[in-house]
Write a structure and sequence with these properties.
The chain has 214 residues and is an alpha/beta fold. The chain has helices spanning 17-26, 49-56, 76-82, 97-106, 152-162, 179-185, 194-197, 202-213; strands at residues 4-7, 31-37, 62-68, 86-90, 110-115, 133-137, 167-171, 189-192. Bound molecules: D-xylitol-5-phosphate (DX5) and zinc ion. Residues 8, 10-11, 33, 35, 66, 139, 141-146, 171-174, 191-195 line the site of D-xylitol-5-phosphate (DX5).
Length: 214
């Protein structure tokens, strides 16, 4: 399975995104990953659907939104109509994961469900057949630039054993060194944030990670 790269824009200055996003796409980024935080599910507040709509004007690339929000279903339509192809919500943020997955699919997007480092794979098992992607958080959500928590990769292994063909995404602490362990565990979609945001040459940093995923 060839890996897909999903750069997170979280650690980039917002005013630079109009230039940075096309550079990442031209150099092989498969998805652009939008980290939406509401100040409730996680402490920080980031941005809303307007940023997605604005960046939709500079690229045709696929967009995914990672909702780190309570009552995530309130945001689905806004982000899908702004141009997101995939919507990912947290299993911990709802007691109705199955219904929310159907809601995303009926709105015409792919559905992903994320689990925090302390949440077991068992939470996902009843809905694995319904989702397009499982996102295993490899750090605690809320901030870019954290160190990957190695034990989370065991959960990637467990999901891969259950679902050989399903997309499994890792998010947090992925860089040119840790990407190999995440790939070996069975991940095939890789969110990379601060590693790219701090690169001197963004295009070559993207190409370098893509080469490691091939
Ligand atoms: C964390 C976010 C991640 C984050 C990844 O809450 O979901 O997408 O931006 O950033 P790095 O790659 O810096 O860990
Ligand atoms: Zn994310």
């Amino acid at each position: 399975m060839n890996g897909e790269l999903a750069p997170s824009i979280l650690s980039f200055p917002l005013i630079e995104l109009g230039q940075a996003v096309p550079v990442m796409v031209e150099n092989g980024a498969d998805w652009i990953h939008f980290d939406v935080m509401d100040g409730q599910f996680v402490p920080p507040i980031t941005f809303g659907d307007q940023l997605v709509r604005d960046l939709r004007r500079v690229t045709q690339a696929k967009f995914e939104v990672h909702l780190m929000t309570l009552t995530p279903e309130r945001q689905f339509d806004a982000f899908i109509s702004a141009g997101c192809h995939r919507v990912i919500f947290h299993a911990e943020a709802t007691v109705h994961a199955h219904r929310l997955i159907q809601q995303i699919k009926e709105a015409g997007a792919e559905a992903g469900v994320a689990i925090n480092p302390a949440t077991p794979v068992a939470v996902l098992e009843p809905i694995l057949a319904d989702i397009d992607l499982a996102l295993v958080m490899t750090v605690n959500p809320g901030w870019g630039g954290q160190k990957l928590i190695a034990s989370t990769l065991d959960k990637v292994r467990q999901i891969r054993a259950l679902r050989p063909e399903m997309s499994i995404e890792v998010d947090g602490g992925i860089d040119a060194f840790t990407v190999a362990a995440a790939k070996e565990a069975g991940a095939n979609v890789f969110v990379v944030g601060s590693h790219l945001a701090k690169a001197d040459d963004l295009g070559s940093a993207v190409r370098n990670i893509k080469d490691l995923l091939a």
